[in-house]
Amino acid sequence: MTPPREDFAGRVALVTGGGSGIGRAIALEYARNGGTIVVLGRRPEPLEETVRLVKELGATGDSVACDVRDAGAVTAAVDSIVERYGRLDALVNNAAGNFVVPAERLSPNGWRAVVDIVLNGTFFCTRAAAPHMLAAGRGAILNVIATYAWHGHPGTVHSAAAKAGVLAMTRTLAVEWAGRGIRINCIAPGPTDTAGAGAALWATDAGRERVLGSVPMGRFATPEEIADCAMFLLSDRAAYITGEVLTVDGGQWLGKAIYGDPGA
Ligand code: HXC
């Protein structure tokens, strides 16, 4: 575990999908760096466990159970956070849904479920946070995407299309809000060893080996490694960075195109 590098004392961050995996790791890392954390997700129990862990670190933590697909509920949740804590400094759009399916077998509902969570959910949370951040003249938004937003990937047409939309949204809003104090960036984790990603993307031992074999570094990321990089983008050290993507994937997407054996 790296020592805390940021000073988030007095700052408040909202992390969607904060009850598990990368979202929980980001929430805990923000708390370790002195910030107050609110986690949002569908199921209260995992959120409450994150809050317990945040409090164990001596930080303030809170949770809101709501579905990012429900724009009205998301707006009410964000407004209540600002009412309670007086500010919202950071928003991490991490909530995601995913499963691997051949495109021709993907039902309209399956397409809608993933696009609603990833693309619409990210916009709904962002539009709920924006008025508060614009009024304060400062805010940092971080969207968790995947490298297949730009290179695509068979079996993930819904998720890849939605993440590509989030990337385009990020770049658009970065320019729209650049002069008004809001920075908005993406982080693109490679395969990360979490229960959710494992179940959705490498459910069998053979699948897990295949994914590992596609990573030049030969290992999964830990959620903590992703969270550590997220802290940088949320911090003032990244004050001049907006509309950017930080890829944290062990070289996975660059290593994809291999023709023959390049030798040891
Ligand atoms: C085909 C499927 C399916 C599957 C669901 N559907 N799973 N189709 N193969 N494996 C279809 C259903 O049949 C239904 O369509 C439609 O999708 C909606 O399913 P519901 O279960 O009713 O939806 P819902 O309860 O809203 O669940 C949403 C979900 C679910 C996305 C389907 O998996 C979810 O909530 N996941 C959240 C957690 C998660 O996925 N985390 C992984 C993130 S990892 P019909 O037509 O039957 O009604 C990640 C990493 C990416 O994103 C980057 C890697 C590098």
Structural notes for this entry:
It comes from Thermobispora bispora (strain ATCC 19993 / DSM 43833 / CBS 139.67 / JCM 10125 / KCTC 9307 / NBRC 14880 / R51). The protein has 264 residues and is an alpha/beta fold. It has one domain (12-248): NAD(P)-binding Rossmann-like Domain (Rossmann fold), CATH 3.40.50.720. The protein contains nine helices and seven strands, in the order E-H-E-H-E-H-E-H-E-H-H-E-H-H-H-E. The protein has helices at 21-32, 44-56, 71-85, 108-136, 148-151, 157-177, 195-201, 205-213, 223-234; strands at 12-16, 36-41, 61-65, 90-93, 139-144, 182-189, 245-248. The chain has a seven-stranded parallel β-sheet, with helices on both faces. Helix 1 packs parallel to helix 2, helix 1 packs across helix 9 (223-234) and helix 4 packs parallel to helix 6. The mean pLDDT is 95. It binds hexanoyl-coenzyme A.
CATH topology: Rossmann fold
**How many β-strand runs?**
7
* Helix/strand structural class: alpha/beta
Note poorly predicted spans.
none
Largest sheet: 7 strands, parallel
Spatial order of strands in the largest sheet: 3-2-1-4-5-6-7
Rough shape? globular
Helix content: 40-55%
Mean pLDDT reading = 95
Tally of discrete structural domains: 1
Instruction: Write down the Rg.
Output: 18 Å
SSE topology string: EHEHEHEHEHHEHHHE
CATH superfamily: NAD(P)-binding Rossmann-like Domain
Which ligands are bound?
Answer: hexanoyl-coenzyme A
Give the CATH level 1 class: Alpha Beta
Q: Indicate the proportion of strand residues.
A: 5-15%
Number of helices: 9
N- to C-terminal separation? 32 Å
Organism: Thermobispora bispora (strain ATCC 19993 / DSM 43833 / CBS 139.67 / JCM 10125 / KCTC 9307 / NBRC 14880 / R51)
GO biological process, one term: fatty acid catabolic process
Pfam family, one: adh_short_C2
Protein name: Short-chain dehydrogenase/reductase SDR
